[in-house]
Amino acid sequence: MVAPAAGVGTGVLGSVLLAAAWRACDIGVNGAANGLALVLYGALLAIAAAVWWGVLIGFAGRRNPTVALLGATAGAAVMVWLFVALLQVPAGYRCR
């Protein structure tokens, strides 16, 4: 039951950070203009993170739950970092 909740949490965190980056760079007309893109990107991130959490906890969690939780958390942090780094500034926009 940890994997789906952690995946959704990772997706929400990534979407919130990406929305803040887009807002800081004045991307989009208003908050609603980017809403659909953020929902879709967040859902993809949530699915990928839930699979990551499930695999790591399923395999490593049987032997050492602490290592599994630390590894899954580190992997989710890397996913969020890549997510924001790759999608932060779409083509044609320059953040000041």
DSSP summary: helix tally = 3
- Largest sheet at a glance? none
Structural class: mainly alpha
Helix content: over 70%
Distance between the termini: 42 Å
Number of strands: 0
User: What value does the Rg take, in angstroms?
Assistant: 15 Å
Kindly state the mean pLDDT as a whole number?
86
Content of β-strand: under 5%
Low-confidence segments: none
Q: What is the approximate shape?
A: elongated
SSE order in H/E notation?
HHH
Compute the number of structural domains.
1
Describe the structure.
The structure is a single chain. The chain is mainly alpha-helical and 96 residues long. It has helices at 2-24, 35-59, 65-87. The chain has one domain. The protein is 74% helix and 0% strand. The longest helix has 25 residues, at 35-59. The model has no long low-confidence stretch (mean pLDDT 86). Helix 1 runs parallel beside helix 3 and helix 2 runs antiparallel to helix 3. The chain is elongated. It comes from Streptomyces toxytricini. This is Integral membrane protein.
Compact summary:
With 96 residues, the protein is mainly alpha-helical.
Keywords:
3 helices; single chain; elongated; 74% helix; 96 residues; mainly alpha
